[in-house]
Amino acid sequence: MGAPNDTTDHQQFQNSAIDPPPSMGLQMLIFLRRSLLVWAVGSAALSTTTGEAKCAFTAIFNFGDSNSDTGGFWAAFPSTPNPNGMTYFKRPAGRASDGRLVIDFLAQALGLPFLSPYLQSIGSDFKHGANFATLASTVQLPNTSLFVSGLSPFALPIQLNQMKEFKSRVLQLQPKDYLPSSDVFGSALYTFDIGQNDFTSNLGSIGIEGVKQYLPQVVSQIGDTIKEIYGLGGRTLLVFNLAPIGCYPSFLTQLPHSDSELDEHGCMTTYNNAVKDYNDLLKGMLRQTREALRDANIVYVDTHSVKLELFTRPKEHGLVYGTKACCGYGGGAYNFNPKVYCGNTKEIDGQTVTAMACADPHNYVSWDGVHTTEAANKLIASAVVGGSYFDPPFPLSQLCDLQPIGEK
């Protein structure tokens, strides 16, 4: 498993993001529905009573992998293929999805524009933040080349250095049309959606027990990064946990498992339980960091529970397919073939085939077997903004006039 090794095919570097565990029953279903309803009613009321969005956060600085990359990887290694971006942007837009990501919807909810990738030199506007995420990024520095491992060279320590350079340049240049004011760093929201590739890139070669050996170092690196961001002025940080990888078509296709390891929804319990262990480590580290930095808001965001709910009960949330990819090749239960990724054409067994997109991505949780669709991302973002998945509780709706998301 892990990132592919085909050095001629940038698209295969998309084998990048995913996350694991628990099983949810009726109580979680009601909880998710309630949070979505509360958020929708609240945001609708705000939109009718306020003429202009007001928010305590004037910018977002994001650190992550393909789950939140808005174009950084493809700015560094241009080659974004169709049909990525087909739903919203109507063209490839640097995102590993058919449309918008959770970070896009979060920015919209706060009344901010989409984040420009830090690595994008043409057309970027950093007045309201910057996105340091790149597809295939890890928390720990990779010890091999991108073209060997498929992992991005822009790991979290590099993204942190880019953030430091960004602040230095802002202070040096002062506000410009494309740069924020120098006081932005204390009033910004810092988001982290990274760690998936550290977990998944070696699963196929060393297994769960091998991966578990270095996960404490991954969590520790995130904690150290949070402390450095605090030193740069950051006081509000949202840290997303990992998704249930045992439900993802790519891993269901590639990772070894027996039928007895599948739950009633078709997800691999062994791998999902391993992710739950990682998320517990992450949560514990954030608790300790919170105690050390008492004037900071360090919030654990349980997107894992939301994603697991969507994968296992898609029809309860207006979707149809949970563990089947929209864009892929092979059909069947998963519609995923690791030899040909979404948008690519390859020769397989003497036949030229193309991994094409379905006509109705709005019915799918999984876009390409590795990443989620815009429809799923909207539901995830709505649940997060609703506030029910913050630990400890965080009054986002009191700090910002939350705007409706997902509207054209």
UniProtKB/TrEMBL annotation:
It comes from Acorus gramineus. Signal peptide: none annotated. Belongs to the 'GDSL' lipolytic enzyme family. This is GDSL esterase/lipase. InterPro entries: GDSL, SGNH_hydro_sf, SGNH_plant_lipase-like. The keyword Nucleotide-binding does not apply. Residues 1-20 are annotated as: Disordered. Gene3D superfamilies: SGNH hydrolase. Keywords: Glycoprotein, Hydrolase, Signal. The keyword Transferase does not apply. GO terms for molecular function: hydrolase activity, acting on ester bonds.
